[in-house]
From TrEMBL:
This is Uncharacterized protein. The lineage of its organism: Eukaryota, Viridiplantae, Streptophyta, Embryophyta, Tracheophyta.
Amino acid sequence: MELLTFQVHKNTTHPVSPIAVYHSKVLNAVHEARQAAENSYDVARIDEKVNSKMHLELLYLRLYKSKCITATAKIASLLPLLMGNGRREHR
């Protein structure tokens, strides 16, 4: 990045020149604009990372859900065998 530099000449009759104040305000505005641009770039990078992490977590949740459904179906198919089809043998 290039730095903007201004030479401010001191005026001996007026301790603070209006031009010096103006230049100072311009430099501050440029500095703040650069900081805002850098921060917005960082926010965009962080937002991208969060979105990719959320997408990965959603994939894991979908996989877990399908495994739970499969396990539930297996258990449901075994219940009649475990319960003895609801019949009890009397002796």
